[in-house]
Design goal:
The protein has 210 residues and is an alpha/beta fold. The chain has 8 helices and 7 strands.
């Protein structure tokens, strides 16, 4: 990405993202914990701020950074969030409490494909950031529990440039690349959604359910 744009995004992050949250996110990244990139997080906060959802579903809690950002951007929302790694699940629980958000969070530990049947429906904002090979499998179920006017925000949809072919995918990532291409094709051709795809961060898609 052009240095000028990166500079703007860096300055915007200081205005958009809670300073304590950004500092925590940066510390996790330094220690090797994968968390959402700054420009993707900016976009997520922007969309949640515009939509002001009441019921958010998140696939991939990680350590809670994105969930905290969503709840701060939408103060009337409750978050239902799914994570399959116990260590991350526990770290996220502590972080939600640290930011005074614990009472607005419903955490689930387990596989997304199993948990999705337990979370209910009526979601007006969905953040998809779990196992990349599961995006296309989850899509139809996500669609069925979203409200009209809901937003589906998916991260890492261009996955390191492998999806577009800009970067040649190592053999071990071919399945993820192909599944992500299928997912993007599904959401782009679904008549019930209006979808945009951009190269922000590691690639994001934003889909509005009619």
């Amino acid at each position: 990405m052009h240095e000028y744009i990166l500079d703007l995004l860096s300055k915007n992050a200081k205005l958009t993202i809670d300073e304590e949250l950004l500092s925590m996110r940066n510390e996790y990244r330094k220690s090797g914990v994968p968390t959402i990139l700054t420009d993707g997080l900016n976009e997520l906060i922007l969309m949640a701020s515009i939509k002001q959802p009441k019921k958010i579903l998140e696939f991939g809690t990680a350590v809670g950074c994105s969930g905290i950002a969503l709840l701060k951007a939408a103060p009337d929302a409750e978050l239902y969030t799914i994570e399959n790694r116990e260590k991350s699940f526990n770290a996220a629980a502590e972080n939600f409490k640290k930011f005074g958000l614990g009472e607005r969070v419903h955490q689930y530990l387990g596989d997304a494909l199993e948990i999705i049947d337990k979370v209910g429906d009526g979601f007006d904002f969905v953040f998809l950031d779990c196992n990349k090979s599961k995006y296309k499998i989850l899509f139809e179920k996500i669609k069925s529990i979203m409200t009209s006017g809901g937003v589906l925000f998916a991260d890492n949809v261009l996955f390191r440039g492998y999806v577009t072919g800009e970067v040649k995918a190592p053999h071990r990532f071919n399945t993820i690349r192909n599944n992500m291409r299928d997912f993007l094709s599904m959401i782009s051709n679904d008549k019930d959604f209006i979808t945009t795809v951009s190269d922000i961060g590691d690639g994001i898609s934003i889909s509005y359910k009619k």
